[in-house]
Structure formats: C-alpha cells, structure tokens
Amino acid sequence: MLKYSKSVVRLLKRAKDITQEYEQEKIFDLCVILAGLEEKSFNRVISLATHTSVEKFKDYIINVLNTYDPISCGEAEESKENREVKKEFRELLKNSGISSLKTEDFCEELMEALNYAGYIAEEEQREEITLFDVVYAVIVQLDHQSRKVFDYSQTSIDRVKELCTETNATLPKNIQGFAKILNQDFSKKQKCAILGRDEEVKQIWKTLLKRTKRNVILIGEPGVGKSSIVYKLTSDIVSGNCPEEFKDFIVVSLDVNSLIAGTKYRGEAEERFKAIIEYVEQNENLILFVDEIHMIVGAGETREGNQDFSNALKPLLAGNGSRVIGATTREEYERTFGREGALRRRFHTITVQEPTTEEVYPMLKESIKQLEKFHGVSISRKMVDFIILNSSCFNYNIANPDRTKDLIDLSMATAKVEGKDRVTRAMVLKNFEGNFKKFRRMSESQIKSTAYHEMGHYLVWRFSDQLSDRKVVAVSIIPTDYYMGVNVFDVTDNINSGDMQYFIDRIAMDLAGRVGEKFYTDTFSAGASSDLQKATKLAYNVVAKYGMADKFGKNRIYLQDANYQMQTNETINSINREIDKIIRKAYDRAEQILKRHRELLDKLVDIISNQGIMNEKELEAVVNNYTEIKA
User: Are strands 286-291 and 324-328 parallel, antiparallel or unpaired?
Assistant: First the structure.
C-alpha cells in the first residue's frame, strides 16, 4: 500500500498552516517548499544549492507569498483527467492516515506533483513516499512565478534535484568512504534472516524513543550477534515492523577504521569528524551505528593535540538530536568507556547474552534457509544439532550463534564441492580432519593428562551446589589451535548466590584442571597455568574489588586508578596474602570433590580418551550409572 512517510505527512500539514498564515486560498508549491525548510535534511539541500543563503531563499518565498495573487491558483476546469488526479491523491491521503487534509485544500498542479512523487517511489519498489520524493516532484513541476524565487536567490534548481536524488539513494560524497546506509541491504518483501533477539530490539526502541540520552551501546562477546541486532532493527524499519516514529528512518553504519585511515596530517581527521557529525545533525530521521565503538576513543588523536573522535562526538551526544547505537565487548567497554565517565553517561548499555544451545537453532532457522538456497544444499535439524556441538568444541573462542552459522556455511560448501545435495556427519567432521590427526598423534600420557584436566573441571562443576548458573553441555579433548581441551558451558536462568562460597567453588572449578592432572602426572600443562591465571584474577577481585576477604579489606575495596591510589606496598602484600588463602581454600575444595569421586573421574577419563568428545547426555549417563551403583 503506497503512502506518504511520516516526514511528508508533517510537511503537508505544515504547508496548510503556512497557506492560512499568508491568507492563500489553496496549498501550492511554494507553501510546500517553505514548510520543507523546517526539515533539517531539506534545509541542508538548499544550503548546498544556493549561492546566497537559506535565509535569503526563505525571505524570497515569504515575499512572494505576501504578494501572490490567489486567483492564479484557482480551480482548473473540471474534467475526467482532473477527477482522476483527485481520486489518486485522495487515496494517498487516506492510506497515509491524513484526515485533516482534503483534495480541496490543494492546487491541481500540486496534487499532480504529489501523485508523481508516488510514481517515483513505485519505480524504486518502495511503499513509502519520502520527503525527497515529494520535494523532487514539486521542483520538477514549478510554475513560472515560483521559479523566479530560485533565480532571484541564486539557487540552482538542477542542483536541488540532483541532491534530492542523491539523498534518497546515497550518502554525501564526502562521507561515502567510511559510511553506508544499511536500509539498502534489505527489501520490504524480504523475510528477515535474523530471528530472536526481540527483547534486545524492544529495549533499543524504548531508548531511541526517549526525549534525552537516546544512545545505546550493545555489550557482548565476539559472535553473540550484536551487529545482527542492528541489522534486524534496520530490516524492521524497511518492512514497517517498527514504531510509527521510525518508519522513514535510515540506519547509517560508520566504519571507524576507514574514518581515520590515511589521516596523517593535522586537521584531516577533524574534517572527516565534522562531515559525519554535520550529516547526523542535519538528518533527524537517522540512526548512526558504530560497530567496535570503543575505537572512537583515541581515534584521530595526534601528537599535536588534535581531539579524538570521542571528544568530537560529545557535543552531539550531549544534545537531544542524535540517536547512536554502538557495539563492543565487555572487556573493551571497561577499558575505554569505563575510564571516560562523560562519554559513558551519554549511553544506555544493553548486555547481549550468548544464546543457549537450545536457542541457537530457532535463532538461525531463517539464515539456514537462505544458506540452503545459496548453496543448493539441504541440512536436517539433527545435523544442525551435531554442528552446534562440534562448533562449540572446536571454536569455543567465538560465541554462538556466529560459530554455528559459520560451520553450517562451511559444511554446506564442503557438500557442494563434493557434488552432494545434503550435509552429512562426515562432511561436518572433514572440517576438523587436522584436529583429529593431532589427536591421533598425541601420546597416551598427553591424552590422559588432558582428559584428567578437563574431567576435573567437569566433576567440580557437577558436584558443586553453588554453580547452577551454568551447565556443561560437552567436554572435548580434541586439540585446536587455541586449546588442548575444553568444557563447553551454557548459561542458565539460575541466579548465583554471589557469596564467598560461590566464588570459592568458581575458583575451585578453575583449579580443578590442575588438581585432575596432579592425579595422573607431576607436571602441569599450559592449560593448567592459564587456569591458575583466571583463578588468581578472580581471587584478586574478591579481595580488592568486592571487599569479601575474611579479615583484611572486609566491607571496603582497594581502588587503583587515575583518581584513586589506595594500594600501597603494604596493602598489596596484604591483598596477596588474602589471595593465597582463597586459592588454597579453593584448591582444597577441588581436591576434596575429585578424591571423593576418584572412581568416576577414572571412568570418565577412560571413555573420553577413546571418544575425544562427550556430550551432555553421555556425561550424565555415566554419572547417573555411577551414583546408582554407589547408592
């Protein structure tokens, strides 16, 4: 259904007010153009097309309106053609929900122009007529009297038409190298490939609808789909499945790397900053998306003292005109925004959690259909579940849903290369032939050591009554480029107690790999050393950040940053002694659990040493069988 956008509805209503203010009988072209000057985006077009100023252009229009003879805009002689024009325009007004305007309010020539704007939108297969469709159509059909306004104000009609065409389709040339309109990647009739994440999108809409501080940062680990949420939001705008206020909005993606690339000399970066900021300020119907937004801190800074992009943005963010969405990881956010209070306050943060194993397939269902169509290869739900398991074991450094989607894509490509029309287990596993070769080349002692390490982690989790905020869905001892083995966890809906016993068990689970290895060998692997680092950092936080130590630092914390220096040599020594106590207690806890279940540990080690991977069901079956025998 063809209709006018929200900005056009606003434009036409304002044009009627102007008509009444200047005592004109009907709305005609100059009334629309004067109303358009109140829209920042069109105001900018005139500023680029005139050799005088926007104010002078406006003054010429007002002068004409004050002296214009209303008779020259009288009724055209009624004819079949006129009736068709009115009928078509009446339908557009109805579709757009404009009950306050009637065909009788408009000149015949203007109605024709407004109908022509509809043809422009239809040619581009759009259902919504934009502000620039209307302005272009009106400019094309200007009458002789109205053209004089452009001549007297030295404003180029051709340049206005050119800019209107550009604005509908592309960005200004001075920002095209580092910005992109995401709307152009989606079609109204195209089904969005990104399913789920409805709660996160709803939170974004609520923030963008606020009167002040309408900026959002999505925080989540690599692969959780932060950018995909913005793509889903953009797709919803294009399809009209969004709040009414945003139906004519565009989403512009900014590439910070490209923004500062090649800006070696003083002033070059500032020129680019100025260009993108001016574009955002002059377009009210715009959402700016900045992926890897932590990069704005320090971007473009030079020895000469040039301000970085984050400082250039602050005035824009402080006002009520911008809508900016950023995306970054928790670590990068703490490293950059965590130290920039003035910047941090201007954003509402939304945490994007990794989906659980059960949530991955529903989230990727539409993407899988598109991949099947692209490759000409089918895949069953059972095979997707197999891929979810294997992608977790071999690429745990990247979060879901990205790691699963990547492996589905790769497995389909494997099938295509082999001339097959469906994905099989063998094709999935072919992607990890190198890993299985490494596993087969490992000595028995290497395999056993890794197995005791990973099963140590698993059993401390399994028999802890504190760690229900997560669950193990698989254990692997197949080596990858990043680790020798892994416990794959899903986050659950359970809330942890957050008390000292919880942290003791968390640290015990980290140390359990070392304890497990100690049952088999006197040497520790690199993985055991990595676990010790994690355990030590968490113990440090318990003491210095959470104020949970038994004696030292209880009910207080010890900050150490630019504003607070609380850690003297004496306090550092005291913190280290408390860390040692916590580590010792956690190590004893892990040792206690594994000694109590030594027989089960040995059984699990034997099984995984042969299989390489055990999923949740296999693990639970062995544990349940063991507990039944013991009972």
Answer: parallel
